[in-house]
Amino acid sequence: MGRAGREDRGRCAQGRTGSRSDTRALRLIPRPAPRSRRSTIATVARFGGLTTAQALQFAEGYVAEDIVLQTARTLAREVGLDPVAPGAGAALRLLAAAGGARAVVEIGTGTGVSGVWLLRGMRPDGVLTTIDLENEHQRIARRIFQEAGFASSRTRIITGRALDVLPRLADGAYDMIFVDADPAEYGACVDAALRLLRPAGVLALNGALAGGRIADPAARDLDTVTIREVVKAVRESEEWIPALLPTGDGVLAAVKHA
Ligand SMILES: C[S@@+](CC[C@H](N)C(=O)[O-])C[C@H]1O[C@@H](n2cnc3c(N)ncnc32)[C@H](O)[C@@H]1O
């Protein structure tokens, strides 16, 4: 157990005096450390011998990207895009594989980084429907999918604005929806996902930590406020079973209630 974990356990075990049942209940609820001590814990937080930053870096690179993904990533940067981080890509592949995904919708094709990760988790006969405004991005992605060995029948590449295309897709027909485009449209994309997913289908939304601003109440720019509202709405909705994965820029994952 890391130092922070040991300190938490220590605080849990202190409890308070009182009846035996009171003490037991209190032991389950760790009391927050005094403010000065909390900041010390934050700055020296360690996972074994690693600092938090080193551990997160290790986790991001845990599943290495091959030459195709590295090329797609380089091309993304060349056209000014910020593709999913490798750890987030690995999480997408995992979610697609865990759900046995055969039909997946991606909003924000980019140059194909997330698309390749998704296709690698999907069933061998699965089809990725991927939507992007920019034909030029999709032209690159098409070549990347080909380089990664996927037959053209495995992808349905639709050029258009997400909110124009999504209403044309069939209700309850998809196993997974991945959203990585315009944050201003995230709320509408989540609503569309609820309609498009089958019961127990999976929603994944990239950028859910808003570049770290999500937890900063002083951050009130439009994108951050929108993402904060969407993340909160999914958590509070009875339609979703959510988890916020702290990989890359944050992936909000949620399963649609069966
Ligand atoms: C961050 S990039 C996607 C990166 C991609 N998911 C990856 O990891 O390789 C965002 C993409 O969304 C597209 N986009 C932005 N607004 C959009 C919209 N309203 N509808 C569809 N695509 C949009 C952009 O053209 C861009 O290619």
UniProtKB/TrEMBL annotation:
Pfam families (alphabetical): Methyltransf_3
GO biological process, one term: methylation
InterPro entries associated with the record: Cation-dep_OMT, SAM-dependent_MTases_sf, SAM_O-MeTrfase
Disordered as annotated region, ranges: 1-25
Keywords: Methyltransferase, S-adenosyl-L-methionine, Transferase
Top-level taxon of the source organism: Bacteria
SUPFAM superfamilies listed in its UniProt record: S-adenosyl-L-methionine-dependent methyltransferases
PROSITE patterns associated with the record: SAM_OMT_I
Gene Ontology molecular function terms on file: O-methyltransferase activity; S-adenosylmethionine-dependent methyltransferase activity
Composition skew (Basic and acidic residues), residue ranges: 1-11
PANTHER family registered for this protein in UniProt: O-METHYLTRANSFERASE RV1220C-RELATED, O-METHYLTRANSFERASE-RELATED
Name assigned to this protein: O-methyltransferase
